[in-house]
Design goal:
Elements (H helix, E strand, L loop, with lengths): L1 E4 L22 H11 L4 H8 L3 H13 L10 E2 H4 L3 H6 L6 H10 E5 L3 E3 L4 E2 L18 H16 L6 E3 L3 H4 L11 E2 L2 E6 L2 E3 L2 H17 L5 H5 L7 E2 L11 E3 L1
Parallel strand pairs: 1-3, 1-6, 6-7, 8-11
Antiparallel strand pairs: 2-5, 3-4, 8-9, 10-11
Length: 253
Amino acid sequence: MKIVISPAKSLDLESELPVNNYSESQFLEQSQQLNKALRTQKPSDLSNLMHISEKLADLNWQRNQDWNLPFNQENARQAVFMFSGDVYTGLDAYSLSQKDIDTMQSSLRILSGLYGILKPLDLIQPYRLEMGTKFGVDGAKNLYEFWKKTITNQLNEELSDNELFVNLASNEYFKAIDAKKIKVPIVAPVFKDWKNDKLKIISFYAKKARGSMSRYLIENEAKTIDDVKGFGVDGYIYSEEYTTNENEPVFIR
């Protein structure tokens, strides 16, 4: 099983870590290349580029200046315990057992504008660089062009024949994968809520559900699409009625 999720803009730099072990991102050379380009951007440039406030631009300008290799436990933090936000609330990695953390490390991958693709325990330093940012570097006109081949090749290298591959990332991040070149079928669950007598995808709830499903799949060591359909957390239930494509199972509540 492999699962891909998005990162988060909000970061947790304070909570006590439940584990000491860590791993190293495979693409730090590319990350360093991107950081070198980011360092040339003034706070006002970052504000315009990322559509963020002056205060956030100042914060991330400083982060860009401070970013430095090599990473260690004094200057960096495991990715899954740094990213915060709705997906990570649903995942709640802090409360996973050691066995499930081991499963998560082998199964879960986090897509990232700065790091490309991360294992949960890969050390990272604080940053802000959304995949959809129109930031060109090294001849690539944007981050999709910069990362797509690298991320796609890495996933194919990790995926076994017929292995379950579940997309729980946002559209912004999943576009960094060349889906047509992935060697196994992609299962992309959809989460919908009833509102005003209509089923709708409500962003806040869908994000949390992606994290909750990630946790469910990890804890149950899912291997098949039927395992995915068994998800029933926070009131969601698989709906055969509203599912029109088996590889895009719809969960409603």
